[in-house]
Amino acid sequence: MSRASPQMRKLLLQKKQKKLSEYKAVYMIQDHLYLAYEALQKGKRNFLCLLPVLLFYLINCKSDR
Predict the structure, then answer these.
(1) Could you tell me the pTM of the whole model?
(2) Whole-number Å distance between alpha carbons of 32 and 62
(3) What are the angstrom distances between the C-alpha of 36 and each of 7, 24, 26, 46?
(4) Interatomic CA distance for residues 9 and 50, integer angstroms
(5) C-alpha triplet 64, 32, 38: angle, nearest 5°
(6) What is the pLDDT of residue 57?
(7) pLDDT digits (tens, 9 = 90+) for 31-61
(8) What contacts 40, CB < 8 A, 6 or more positions away?
């Protein structure tokens, strides 16, 4: 059984982290789209009230990185 070199381990870890962040982004988008869909179902006025809140949340999430 061969051992993985430190460089190989580092590459595998980076790949895994990238994959996890992509999954996280997909789930965040799904959550926000669902909230937007619900607001649209309740009425346009609710959606227009919710939209700035969603945008603010997304901007804050991106700035944390």
Answers:
(1) 0.42
(2) 14
(3) 43, 18, 15, 9
(4) 44
(5) 155
(6) 78
(7) 878 877 787 788 777 677 777 777 787 777 7
(8) 46, 47
